[in-house]
Amino acid sequence: MTVTGLILAAGEGRRMGLPKALIEWRNRTFLERAADTLASAGCSPLRIVIGARAESVKARHPSLQDAFIENPDWSRGMGTSLRAGLASLASGHSDSDWAAVILVDQPLLTPAAVERAAATAAASTLHDGAVSKTVVMAAYDGERSHPVLFHRSIWTDLAESLTPEVGARHYIRSHPDRVAEVDCSGLGDPTDIDTPDQLEALRRKRTDRTG
């Protein structure tokens, strides 16, 4: 089984004053950390959806140039970025079986959580190559979050169903029998870093659980 890593990193980070892809913590940007998380979990290739200040994001990350997907509609909402990423994969830019989606502003997400979700995805594969589940979602203490894995068989339909504000939530709620939830409690922290106060609290942490 092969898994493409898909990072949603197009937002402007209005409350932070700069795109979260460019925020630095412990000598790495949030985007570098997200890319390392997926790569360490064995996800390949890597695709990154960018939008706000796209040229600055590209210039800061020369080693990731081949991974970028530009979303011209980024300002309308995160759903447009997921649509852009999945549409790119569905158009033939990936031969992977699954796409593992994470957000750029979750710096404490761990490779271990991605690996556990990917193992659940692999276990859903049937003898004829079909899958019993098409969505795998990590949950932490009962709360669903990222990573979320989508099987390639639904990339096109999912992309077409997305709305800018709601993203994949409507699709997931409409197909509960196709969703597998995997407990990743204790395997890192999926908290979004949205404000300067949250970033300052993160910088005061003594332990870096993502390595």
TrEMBL record:
Keyword annotations = Transferase
A single GO molecular function, which one? Answer: transferase activity
Ribonucleoprotein is among the record's keywords: no
MobA-like NTP transferase domain mapped to chain residues: 5-177
- Please give the superkingdom of this protein's source: Bacteria
Name used for this protein in its record? NTP transferase domain-containing protein
